[in-house]
């Protein structure tokens, strides 16, 4: 049994000839020792990513995209025992929960604000700006310092919760993760996992060390509580899977060893569980005509293929004629391309993105977001370009 004594069953839907198969992202939890896995979120009209555990492991904070989510992309807190959730930060992204308190840090990249904020779980107090031009924050074990990626120089920096101290680690990278013993920062760079040692005053010591070195794309590292192992996601099997590796290097092991697309791993504070974003199968009726559309006036599907190289298709359906604008953003919230801004008739439609920006240049491998806007309705989905 899953140690958290979850009440939500793992949902699996059988395919049938009369329905089409769709997939959404949900947060799952796996017990490291036994591999027992359960679904932790139960939001059927949204995708969830980027989980982070509360200190007592009873809750997770995570991203939610699409559906009826405010601003199309916000941060929610979910009770892992009941699945009950509550909005924490509208327009928020990539949250990290302090290992010792109710403090949560996050950025607001999806709404065009690459800045880090902090708020307190369960409090109605306004959230406070920590650092501008900064994304992807991660706490140290004291909950008083964070490491982040600077949008000014692309390097990793360390600051306190008031942004009053800033220490440039001198290494470029993304998705930093602070080891529980406070001695290392792991991060991803150019498709591999790296780490840099910290001195007593949290300045970088020595040169960066490659933890993985192979032809696959690996990212989003997270430390085990003993600071000896890292989990990360990798595209070794075609789709993404969760890998584990000794922090000193070596051959990784894998959560599933398949292409079922698991992203954004996060070790629990006691190291016994890993939460991650994974595909959930769902059966939906075929959409063939206006009268068969559900009451919702806009349906946006996950792009296909995903991951992709170099082209992908984004499909959507309208209950009635409407103006549709589809835009693509990178993981820093920068506008990359507008795919369409035209009137569409009721029914199903599809547009393609060829992986190029406004200038016609191919963009780099990485995570991108596409936003579909129809009047006041906004849907946001995540996609991955792999070369």
Describe, in short, the structure shown.
By secondary structure, this protein is an all-beta fold. The protein contains no helices and 31 strands. Residues 1-22 and 282-295 have low confidence and may be disordered.
Please describe what this structure looks like.
By secondary structure, the protein is mainly beta. The protein folds into two domains: 20-282, Neuraminidase, CATH 2.120.10; 290-385, Immunoglobulin-like (Sandwich). The protein has no helices and 31 strands. It has strands at residues 20-31, 37-39, 47-53, 59-65, 73-79, 85-90, 93-97, 103-108, 113-120, 128-132, 134-139, 145-150, 155-160, 166-172, 174-178, 184-189, 192-198, 204-210, 218-223, 229-237, 239-246, 253-254, 262-267, 273-284, 298-300, 312-318, 322-330, 335-344, 347-353, 366-374, 377-385. The strands form eight sheets. A four-stranded antiparallel beta sheet has the order 2-1-24-23, with no helix packed on it. Strands 3-4-5-6 form a four-stranded antiparallel beta sheet, with no helix packed on it. It has a four-stranded antiparallel beta sheet with strand order 7-8-9-10, with no helix packed on it. The chain is globular, with a radius of gyration of 20 Å.
């Amino acid at each position: 049994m899953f140690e958290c004594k979850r009440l939500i069953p793992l949902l699996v839907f059988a395919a049938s000839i009369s329905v089409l198969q769709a997939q959404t992202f949900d947060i799952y939890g796996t017990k490291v020792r036994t591999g027992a896995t359960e679904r932790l979120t139960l939001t059927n009209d949204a995708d969830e990513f980027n989980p982070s555990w509360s200190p007592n492991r009873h809750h997770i904070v995570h991203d939610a995209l699409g559906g009826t989510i405010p601003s199309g992309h916000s941060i929610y807190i979910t009770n892992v025992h009941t699945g009950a959730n509550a909005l924490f930060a509208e327009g928020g992204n990539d949250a990290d929960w302090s290992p010792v308190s109710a403090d949560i840090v996050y950025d607001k990249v999806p709404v065009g604000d690459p800045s880090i904020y902090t708020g307190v779980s369960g409090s109605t107090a306004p959230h406070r700006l920590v650092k501008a031009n900064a994304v992807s924050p991660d706490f140290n074990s004291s909950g008083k310092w964070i490491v982040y990626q600077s949008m000014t120089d692309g390097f990793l920096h360390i600051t306190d919760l008031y942004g009053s101290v800033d220490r440039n680690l001198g290494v470029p990278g993304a998705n930093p993760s602070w080891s529980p013993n406070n001695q290392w920062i792991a991060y991803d760079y150019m498709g591999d996992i790296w780490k840099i040692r910290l001195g007593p005053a949290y300045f970088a010591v020595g040169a960066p060390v490659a933890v993985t070195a192979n032809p696959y794309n690996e990212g989003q590292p997270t430390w085990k509580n003993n600071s000896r192992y890292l989990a990360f996601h990798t595209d070794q099997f075609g789709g993404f899977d969760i890998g584990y590796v000794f922090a000193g290097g070596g051959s990784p092991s894998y959560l599933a060893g398949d292409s079922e697309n698991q992203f954004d791993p996060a070790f629990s504070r006691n190291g016994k569980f890993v939460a991650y974003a994974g595909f959930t199968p769902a059966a939906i009726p075929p959409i063939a005509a206006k009268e068969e559309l559900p009451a919702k006036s806009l349906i946006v599907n996950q792009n296909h293929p995903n991951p992709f190289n170099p082209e992908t298709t984004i499909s959507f359906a309208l209950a009635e004629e409407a103006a549709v604008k589809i835009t693509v953003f990178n993981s820093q919230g920068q506008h990359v391309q507008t795919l369409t801004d035209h009137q569409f008739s009721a029914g199903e439609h599809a547009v393609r993105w060829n992986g190029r920006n406004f200038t016609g240049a191919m963009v780099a491998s990485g995570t991108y977001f596409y936003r579909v806007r129809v009047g006041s309705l906004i849907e946001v989905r995540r996609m991955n370009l792999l070369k």
